[in-house]
Amino acid sequence: KYYFSDINHTNKILLDEKEAIIKHSKIRQYDLLDKVFLYEKRMWLKINKNSKILDIFVNSQKLQLVFDNVYINDLTLVFKTLHKLKKQRAKNANLWIFADMSSRADDNAEHLYRYVMNNHPKQKIVFALRKDSCDYLRLKKEGFNLVDPRTLYFKYLLFKTSKIISSHIDKYIFNAFGGDTLQSKDFIFLQHGVTKDDISNWVNKRKIDIFITSTKAEYNSIAGDFNHYKFSTKEVVLTGLARWDALIKNNVLNTKQILIMPTWREYLSGKIQKYEVRTKNPDFIKSLYFQKWQEFLCSKELENLAKKYGYSVVFIPHPQVRIYLDDFNLPSYIITSYKTSMQKLFCTSSLMITDYSSVAFEMAILNKFVLYYQFDKDDFFSRHTYTQGYFSYKRDGFGEILEDKYTLLNKLKELIIYISTNSKNNIVENKIIFTNKKNCQRIY
């Protein structure tokens, strides 16, 4: 890789005085004070074991090569390092570790594990999940080979495995043995959902060998040029999410259920403890997030709507909100069980109310209705762990955006009446390309 500021510059890459074959390339953009500061050109070259000299010219000027903070004139040190890494990888067992959250399954890793277990039984696989998880017994009965991530045995398996396949990038995995835990492993990032915002500041810190995406816009926003991601077409693949196969298969129509699923605000989090568990933030109830959602959920208007039209209401906010549920003092008719499968909730709901969560894509896959309650848009994108990306809720979203309780309630009533006579949601058509129930097969 090399850095440049002139996008019209020329380059020449030579291997032993012959033009090199570039298998993958990427132009990454760096910003300073909201303006482009610098570009980085990343390239993957085809090099055989006999290659000796690499020359890179930018605007006819030869660049000095640096590898592992050492100036080099040939590829000797590069091959020496690669040989050492190859020896480390050779010690890995043909074992794949799957993981969703340490305390919860029911996500992409679970669904891909099930596919491999049923279709490729010779492959050695284990699934990381705490024994106190509500999903543990369910998966144990199904025949999942489970291991508790808090145990020494899990660390042994992590040391021996060749592939780690996860929907999350949690510290108990990538930092189990220090910063180089994944150096000799393949890390397959299944993702927790569709990436619609710019999360480059977070994922760029991690070693990701395969990065799963689900829409063309998402794929291009990560693998394409002139964005903030370090990843290219080498790592990023377009397959669809593993869990969508079962989602489409188990869809239920003509239900009367409102699913309310707001996402989290990182700036409201308490201190992080082991296995991604956080302490409770005593100031949470003072936040606009708490006040606005409580105001809506506890409103008589919502209760009257549900009773009049025979709807059940399910409130399942982001898992980080779970420890604050009692603070909401929700009316008894609102269901809040986290033990119910997320897949089942999507399949048995008629519509969803969220704020910025990518779970709206789950409803889009099922061609169901979505409302966005966004009362803190500016605050959310300025203070959260990511910034707004290619996705515009107004242009690309799957429903209307509401900013206060009254317009949300009015639109909800309109939608309930509309659903009673029109089951089809035309808004989401043609926005999702993978609906053929073969996502797991593509990922494998």
Please characterize this protein's 3D structure.
By secondary structure, the protein is α/β, with parallel strands linked by helices. It has 3 domains: 2-72, no CATH class; 90-245, Rossmann fold; 247-435, CDP-glycerol glycerophosphotransferase, C-terminal domain (Rossmann fold, 3-Layer(aba) Sandwich). It has helices spanning 76-90, 108-119, 136-142, 152-160, 171-174, 200-203, 216-223, 244-249, 288-297, 300-309, 342-347, 360-365, 377-383, 393-396, 405-419, 439-443, and strands spanning 2-4, 11-15, 18-19, 22-32, 35-45, 54-58, 61-62, 65-67, 70-72, 95-99, 124-128, 146-147, 163-166, 186-189, 210-213, 236-238, 257-260, 312-315, 334-335, 351-354, 369-373, 401-402. The strands form 5 sheets. It has a 7-stranded parallel sheet with strand order 12-11-10-13-14-15-16, sandwiched between helices. A 6-stranded parallel sheet has the order 19-18-17-20-21-22. The chain has a 4-stranded antiparallel sheet with strand order 3-2-6-7, with no helix packed on it. The longest helix is centred in the first third of the chain and has 15 residues, at 76-90. It starts with a strand and ends with a helix. InterPro entries: Glycerophosphate_synth, TagF_C, Teichoic_Acid_Biosynth. GO terms for molecular function: CDP-glycerol glycerophosphotransferase activity.
